[in-house]
Design a protein that fits this description.
Length: about 100
């Protein structure tokens, strides 16, 4: 993950997704742009991380077990993925840890 940062650098900023807020049915980019200028993602849904689609795909592949075991042993990865906590038995909503 070579393009993932806690703060976006000048190379990343032009390529970041743009956020919008709806006001009376119209998309308004000002508030999200201001949050980004302060160095945060809009309402920080990004876990305070900025990344690219390619790096996110690498992370997802890793979480699916396709990463190098020198980073995280597959047994440990599977154990961490088994620790899920659901709000409902049918798993239609809830919270999980991986």
């Amino acid at each position: 993950m070579r393009h993932t940062r806690f703060e976006p650098d000048e190379q990343m900023i032009p390529n970041l997704a743009k956020g919008y807020v709806l006001h009376d049915g119209l998309a308004d980019p000002r508030q999200p742009a201001e949050e980004l200028r302060k160095g945060r993602g809009y309402k920080v849904p990004n876990g305070a991380m900025f990344t690219t689609v390619r790096d996110m795909a690498r992370f997802v592949s890793f979480e699916m077990g396709y990463g190098p075991e020198i980073v995280l042993n597959k047994k440990v990865l599977l154990e961490s993925q088994s620790q899920m906590f659901w709000a409902g038995e049918d798993a239609t909503m809830g919270y999980g840890l991986a």
